[in-house]
Amino acid sequence: MKTKSLRKLNVSIVFLILGGLIVASCGGKSDTASTLPVEEVVETTIPETTTTTIPVIVNPLTGAPAADESILNRPALIVKIDNHPQARPQWGLNQADLVFEENVEQLTRFAAVFHSQGSDPVGPIRSGRVQDINLLGSLNHPLFAWSGGNQQVTSAIRKSWLVDLSHSAANEKGGYRRESSRNAPHNLLAETTKLWSLAPADAKPPAPQFEYRKSDEPVTTASKPAAAVKISMDGVDVMWEWNPDLLTFVRSQDNKPHVDMQDVRINAQNVVVISVVYSKSGSSPVAKSVGSGEVWIYTAGVLVQGTWERPDPEMPFIYKDINGEIIKLTPGRTWIEVIRPKSAVNIAPGEDVTKVKYP
Question: What residue stretches are annotated with the DUF3048 domain (predicted)?
Fold first, then answer.
């Protein structure tokens, strides 16, 4: 009996000790526990990463990135440039965004369109023609620098959407002067910087005249390689040749390289050859630039053939390939050759350009 009672007592003591330890460990604070730092768990949210694409601002008349955005709101400035043999070499042709070559009286004349950059001086400057009104009407009331014209032409231009900055209207404020090293009338120069300062307060920038390919966008499949094109203009034989090293087309006139006053070959990334019907006003040819016709577009070393359409002279030409798709140009400067029908011949790679006759 005593042994059993003792065993019961010992078991009870053990349970009491264990119970005390358990209570102490659950409810008490030990010195070791109090020295441990309490780590606070904070719920955080990692913000999503967003990519902001900054749009590239391009020049409306070249499709190339704008080097100076401050000038993008100025109007287009058209300068009528002489192409008489005594007027060569000219100032400013390689600085113009666009150049229209049009037939005049047994010769050609250039309508050089400046916007992304200018030329001080520019010229030699000659007279305008009635055909300039419709041909250049899509440039959103551009400034028009010219030497003047007869009463009929002057009246028509002053009533048109062209802003008259002729020699008589702008004079010294436009930087007009006579170049002593040339003979009149092939020596009239001006300055684009001064001509732009005469723009009306409500003048607006030009609308894009072409669509351009992106850097990774191929030329339309409706194209073929082209080495050159020969064009018979009135009184002038013109040739444009593809230069694969410069990635531009370079120009010749009457079988001689056409260079500017800096002795730089006249060049352009694109050459647009539009076939139009010419009528006459007196002795002056008048290009019919409203309607439709054939177009050859030279870009990136290839020829894209198609059609041009233009129902309204204040709207840009629409150029489509043989599949009916819009023809896109290479960003850069463009020359527009306004030719008579059947006045151009394409020259394929490998052909001897010297043996191909002008049409």
Answer: 61-199, 234-336
Q: What is the pLDDT of residue 324?
A: 96
Segments of the chain scoring below 50 in pLDDT: 1-42
At residue 62, the pLDDT reads 98
Cα radius of gyration rounded to whole Å, the chain:
38
pLDDT at 221: 84
pTM score of the predicted model: 0.85
State the Cα–Cα distance between residues 344 and 339, nearest whole angstrom. Answer: 8
144-148 — which CB contacts under 8 Å span 24+ positions? Answer: 144/78, 144/80, 145/77, 145/78, 145/79, 145/80, 145/170, 145/174, 145/190, 145/195, 146/79, 146/80, 147/80, 147/185, 147/188
Q: Which domains does the chain have, with CATH numbers?
A: 69-196 (3.50.90.10), 211-355 (3.50.90.10)
The first and second tokens of residue 333, run together, are 């400067």
